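Subject: Sanity check before I submit

Could someone independently write out the structure tokens for this chain? I want to compare against mine line by line before I put it in a report. The sequence has 178 residues.
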Amino acid sequence: MNPRLTGVTPLTNQVTRERRQPPLVLFHLLEWMGIDFSLDVEQFNQQWVESSSAPSWSQLIIEHIRDEAETLTAETLTHAVPSGVWRMQSDGELRFSRQAFQTQAASGESEAFFMRTIDAGHMAFKGSSLGRLTLRHRLMDDRYRLTARAAAWIRGFRQLLDSSSRPRLLSPDRPATE
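---
Independent answer below. Compare away.
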């Protein structure tokens, strides 16, 4: 069974964790296993409608966007961007801050949690997933356009993932300075 029901499942699980509610995927598992349970659906739905109490999270799925035709050699990753908390510096440069394995480790708008989905030595093809970036607060405005903050994070990760920037990649043992 694949517990990643949809791309939004990690975000809904994060919100339910912060609200001290069971994750939505638990209800799917209970149904799938045929376990009887009761739930006040109206009350549960009302809690989700009350957006003022909901913490705000966003997620960017980072994919390899370069066509192999644009490069002279195959895109074998020689360096992997470490999973953990990344911090955006005032000049827009991203620095690895610390190892972490939970999305809530990112605090404030200058930090994000990155989960790598490809390791060094593997081939990256156009459309292959390189990782997921989870951040606090919204990354789209009310007209569903990316915010300047979202664009800055995208630029920062493109620089990290670009082969010309890989030699500058900071290792986990060199944390970012405040």
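---
OP: Matches mine. For the report I'm noting this point. Residues 58-168 form one domain.
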